Amino acid sequence: MRLNILAFAAGVFLLQVQQELPGVWLQLSIFLAGLAVAVPLARRPHFALRILVAIACLGIGFGWAALRAEWRLADALAPEWEGWDVEVIGVIAELPQAFSRGQRFSFDVEQVLTPEAVVPSRVMVSWYRGEHDGDPSAAIEALAALGAGTVHAGERWRLTLRLKRPHGNANPHGFDYEAWLLERGIRATGYVRPKGENKRLDDLALQPLYLIERLRESIRSRFLAALPESEHAGILVALTVGDQRAIEGDYWKVFARTGTTHLMSISGLHVTMVAALLGGLAGMLWRRSPRLMLLFPAQRAAVFVGALAALLYALLAGFSVPAQRTALMLAVAALALLSGRRTAASRTLTLALAAVLLLDPWAVLAPGFWLSFGAVSLLFYVASEKVVELAGWRASVSRWSAAQWAVSVGTLPLLLLFFQQFSLVSPLANALAIPAISFIVTPLALLAAFLPVPGLLLLDHWLLGWVMQGLTWLAEFPVYTQPAPPLWCVVLALSGIGWMLLPRGFPARWLGLLLLLPAVWVTPARPPSGQAWMTVLDVGQGLAVVVQTATKTLLYDTGPLYSAESDAGQRVILPYLRALGVEALDAMVITHSDSDHSGGAASVLTAMPVARVISSVPDIAAEPCVAGQRWEWEGVRFSMLHPSGEAAGPKARAKPNNLSCVLRVEASGTSMLLTSDIEAVDELALLARDATVLRSDVLLVPHHGSRTSSTPAFIAAVAARQVIYPVGYRNRFGHPRADVVARYGDTPSWRSDRHGALTVRLADGASVSSYRETHRRYWYGR
Questions:
Q1: What's the predicted TM-score (pTM) here?
Q2: Domain 79-206 is found in CATH 3.40.50.720
Q3: Which distant-in-sequence residues (6+ apart) come within 8 Å of 232 by Cβ?
């Protein structure tokens, strides 16, 4: 059975890395053929038949995931309804999340009122207060006008929405927002329009999942009201109802640097603890009743109550993958005990794996899936180690130390693959935090959620404060970072860890360390001397370009400020630089002050050293960018062409776009021109100074393709062989403008909204590659 379930999981994973879905008849044929082979042959002991059944189970997993994907993708927003107002009736499906300008929530569409409109069953909606970027003329004050103030989980509303199909930034080593939406069944995103009848129809839709979400929101509201202005209130909310977005961003840095991030999700340890406490309490009370004891053994009653408590807590916490895995494992173990059968731990784990993937085939795309099942597998793997020379508490300490060592070392390759860092103080931090948070803070928080004991929540917050003080102190210690290892290095490292953790007495366990070394030593390739690699990152409506030479790195612009809570620096640029192994920038050019170009600067400057900052922004402590600046790195020449000294002088009153730093990068006889947001007047100035220096093989189109730029004379002078438009999907400016695109004629063009991150290699010739093409997945564009 275990081999068959692992094969099923492999089939699910194989489907999730496909570029395109196979035809629906092929999906169904693979699924049914797998069942036809696996069902009659599953119990045959012959080795060849067991391999055949495993292959059939792989097909079942592939077919099952494909059919689920086909069904979910079919629930789509019709392309012709993107950007149009649609009126719908539906229910606030999950916890609403507050942000600086309003609220964001999942919305289950029950009825579409707009004739002929095709709207998916679940959408993600933002309700803004004040001016909205997508509709500058709209002051969205409908919430206040209604006297509602906020929306709540489980409410039924009539709303007028403007929607678009799922779309996210596509960058190497970046977060796949489109896959995240697909997993959650969210098939469109958008915002509430102030025009139309936005009206609450029902205070609570009486369905089980909506009732759970309302309970979660009620607990969150009570905690935040009871702990106003308390710095750790969001952590208690996360530990109780799984709302991780309640935790402030600075604390996530502390958890990441101490290796305790797993404790802030409703992990297996928390669910098991709740199950053990409530199961033990039920067993103790059951034994006090002779009648109940005659009806049902106390041990079985405790097992049943514990498994039920685990399931309810997992639901209360949002049913994340770690909570799912633990609740399902406990359910399997409970069924085995109630039936009188003994089930091996590995069998229980694989049954939980099968259940998770049957419910959610997209779980394999989340780092939490691999870390959760990987950590528990390691614990089972080392549990067979017998501590024969010790007894009592010494044996317990030895087993606990072995488990900590196994999880810390065993998850290292995955942590490097997903996050490119590993906390050196993680064992010590977890030794402090696991007992305190799992056995004291979380139980008290759950008790406070359901029993209004005066002062209990304050006591819990005080205890958590001591834990956070210790973690904050440990977060000051260094964190091991390195580039993202290639997948083959990760596979080798995991094999080596399996060898190292073999039972004592097994010969040459130290050889496993050799298999771990490539994951630590292999670094990403860099361009040879004399060449340059330039990546135009997909940051939405904004600009960020990373330029690499043989040993140096330059960042040209830092992308937009998305909100008060996030920017392109922290969400896109820094993860990309970490994956490349860049620990410091040799130069950063902030071309001008517009927030779509400078929005991520503070995050980058805070996170890593920058040897040289060049900018036209007067408020930034930087070297002014002025035409005539030149430097060379390893045979790659950099030339600043704009603005002129007069335009950038202290008395200049030019608007920010006219001060944009224009940089030309030349390597191996080829070049790329980075133009930021220059406009027609600036293009004219460049032509007047020296039109010959503009000629380049690749052009970053000025001002995202705005009609105020890309004059015919400028286009002719550059004579680019390929052009790139850095634009956001369905941006409100309409960039690139159709008339501008027409001016470039048949010149091959690339768009970051359609192609994702674009990598330009300046070698013997200039080549451009697209992330969405080289790493295509079947859900892109759907």
A1: 0.89
A2: no
A3: 461, 464, 465, 468
